[in-house]
Specification:
Length: 274
């Protein structure tokens, strides 16, 4: 860890550079009672580079296709707006467009063109993997500050999963017992979500809890009612046979479906003991 101080008195700027992980470097700048944290992550840089390259490649292909189409100027602007939304503002800044003038109703390859902005591309490359944080904890250990930030991101991710994957919504209860029961059910659902996530991390890293739940939702159980000649009804509870991709997921998670339940016999809806 290295550091120093610039200036005198309360306006002095103190800085420090430290390595909190093998692939994460943090630069701390303390000024006016606040701490600015510049973090650089190699893994995050690689991820952002891959995302930027994929989106930029898709955007360039889309722009090439638009140059070959016979469009009016208004139609071109609408399609460019959709392309900008899909690419994102960071990738859109890398491309400079040549648009037709207002009096040019028909778009041609001569009136519509594009080229890469190399200066913005170099700037995007320098910023990839870096992000700036601000905190009022000015006397903390850098590794501890980084741990606090990771905990904050985990809490935010938990709220996103509760509202997204688990689709938990507010319900206005009238009694304390119902409120506590609602919180308990939401907590148990989140515990199952975390358990599934940890199991996927070790057994099937390429899958997410949402993708597994969506895939497994196709396995359903149905009751087949077979009336008999003596007025009774035989009920067969059967679940659908899993598809090959579902079987593969079950094998990766080391989960076996239970045996098909035995048939039940009822008379006028009243079960008969076997």
């Amino acid at each position: 860890m290295s550091g120093g101080c610039i200036g005198n008195g309360s306006n002095a700027v103190r800085w420090a550079i430290c390595q909190v992980r093998d692939a994460v470097q943090v630069k701390l700048v303390e000024q006016d009672g606040e701490l600015y944290i510049l973090a650089r992550s190699g893994a995050r840089r690689d991820k952002e580079q891959a995302m930027r390259r994929r989106r930029l490649k898709k955007l360039v292909k889309r722009l090439h296709d638009l140059r070959q189409q016979k469009l009016t100027r208004d139609q071109l602007l609408i399609k460019l707006g959709a392309a900008r939304k899909e690419a994102g503002p960071a990738v859109w800044r890398i491309v400079d467009l040549q648009l037709p003038e207002k009096d040019q109703a028909v778009v041609t390859p001569e009136t519509f063109g594009f080229r890469l902005n190399w200066q913005n591309l170099r700037e995007a490359r320098r910023r990839e993997g870096s992000y700036l944080l601000r905190s009022n904890l000015t006397c903390g250990d850098p590794a501890q500050l980084w741990t606090f930030y990771l905990q904050l991101t985990e809490v935010e991710q938990a709220f996103r999963e509760l509202k997204g994957d688990l689709a938990i919504r507010p319900i206005y209860h009238q009694t304390d017992e119902r409120i506590e029961a609602h919180i308990l059910i939401a907590f148990l659902a989140y515990c199952l979500q975390v358990t599934l996530k940890q199991r996927l991390r070790s057994l099937a890293p390429g899958l997410t809890p949402r993708s597994v739940l969506d895939k497994m939702a196709a396995i359903q159980i149905v009751d087949v009612h077979l009336p008999t000649t003596d007025g009774r009804t035989v009920i067969l509870s059967r679940y659908t046979e899993p598809e090959p991709d579902q079987v593969l997921v079950l094998q990766r998670l080391k989960i076996s479906l239970p045996d098909q339940p035995p048939p039940r016999i009822t008379t006028d809806g009243i079960p008969i003991a076997e």
